[in-house]
Amino acid sequence: MTGEGTQERPGMSRRRMLGFSGASLLVGAAAGAGLDRVASAEEDDAGDAIAFHGAHQAGIATPVQDRLHFAAFDVTTGDRDRLVRMLKEWTAAAAAMTAGRPVGEGAVGGPAVAPPDDTGEALGLPPSRLTLTIGFGPSLFVKDGEDRFGIRARRPAALVDLPHFPGDNLDPARSGGDIAVQACADDPQVAVHAIRNLARIGFGVAAVRWSQLGFGKTSSTTPDAQTPRNLFGFKDGTENIAGTEGDLLDRHVWAAGGDGAGWMAGGSYLVARRIRMHIETWDRTSLREQEDVFGRNKGEGAPAGLKKERDKPALAQMKPDAHVRLAHPDSNQGTRILRRGYSFTDGSDGLGRLDAGLFFIAFQRDPRTGFIRVQNSLATDALNEYIQHVGSGVFACPPGVREGGYWGETLFA
Ligand SMILES: C=CC1=C(C)c2cc3[nH]c(cc4nc(cc5[nH]c(cc1n2)c(C)c5CCC(=O)O)C(CCC(=O)O)=C4C)c(C)c3C=C
Ligand SMILES: [Fe+2]
């Protein structure tokens, strides 16, 4: 079961659809030189597209891309059939865009008297490893006590409303949502194009409630890659679950049939937190204090008292309130979560401070024994002096889509 979602496959790029790309020219020029050259031109695009269909949704265990556009939607209709129709249209659009194809008849292929099916800003761009991952929030199942779509009884026990944590300062306008879509790509324009086109398709059925752009991935699911750094300058993602660790994914990330909600088997639960980081305060903090806060050194990323980033942490050598000590599985009954967050900077706050931080995303088999357990443990975290959680969401991400199926099929069928 595991490993399927990590497969990359060559996709037909938007450029090749238009037939004027460098790759197409190469293919054309090579035609006279024999099939070998054509084959290698094909290979030039290999890896650009991540398979959309499979047992698990892409964008969870697949390698982390450089950019994020995350959007939470409110469903504005009470009509179940319209919602399902939109999910089917979204699925077709998502399958096309992740393969590098435009939506429907494209940006210029349809009738001149109607708005184009595709908004066009990704024309000429390759798939850029775009992944689109959908999740359903608690309010899709019950909102203000109302079962709008007849799915109240199908709400998984694991899809709990997150409790209030000490220090939370959540903005309702940046929290919640009936449906979330995580778009990740190596080109921000491709990620933004994807969300924009889903929003366009959803007009009259779902409206964007809030969204977040992210850059500089702060964790990785490929252990051989260099560990990225967060906005505090520390390597982030050293101890993460890798996309290749099938046993860990099965134990800690993928929901199973026996977990209580059969329709979620092969899916996962996404917790998103917009965490503001007080950059200016941090930048006036001594190096020793910074390293004590995390329990790792800044240059190499080695655990306190040790030499190399991958050395096994000795928790007792860290301060009792060090972030890594409190977040470590040994302090949390063995809990592991798959982190997939991104940095953000959204201008400044009018007081001369950057509105910057970490858009934290974690996938887990059950938020009660995943994020919630770790976040409770972080109540005494030394890092809390320098951060504040200002946005939040929890979403049930269904299993992957089979060929001919649609997003949410196991829930609505
Ligand atoms: C509830 C879960 C977590 C939140 C929220 C969180 C916020 C947060 N983290 C950093 C920076 C780092 N975190 C690191 C490790 C780490 N963090 C969590 C969980 C949360 N972090 C876990 C489970 C771990 C791994 C612990 C382990 O097994 O050792 C690190 C160290 C490098 C690494 O392993 O990734 C850094 C650095 C920030 C800046 C932040 C909020 C803004
Ligand atoms: Fe952390």
Automatic annotation (TrEMBL):
EC category name: oxidoreductase
One Gene Ontology molecular-function label: metal ion binding
Domain Dyp-type peroxidase N-terminal span(s) in chain numbering: 57-215
Catalysed reaction equations from the record: heme b + 2 H(+) = protoporphyrin IX + Fe(2+)
Domain of life: Bacteria
Localization (cell): Cell envelope
Biological-process GO terms, alphabetical: iron import into cell
Enzyme Commission code(s) on record: 1.11.1.-
Keyword Nucleus: no
PROSITE patterns, A to Z: DYP_PEROXIDASE (PS51404), TAT (PS51318)
Principal subcellular localization: other
Cofactor(s) needed for function: heme b
Location of the Dyp-type peroxidase C-terminal domain: 227-401
Cofactor note: Binds 1 heme b (iron(II)-protoporphyrin IX) group non-covalently per subunit.
Key words, A-Z: Heme, Iron, Lyase, Metal-binding, Oxidoreductase, Peroxidase, Signal
GO cellular component: cell envelope; cytosol
Role description: Involved in the recovery of exogenous heme iron. Extracts iron from heme while preserving the protoporphyrin ring intact.
Family: Belongs to the DyP-type peroxidase family.
Identification of the protein by name: Deferrochelatase
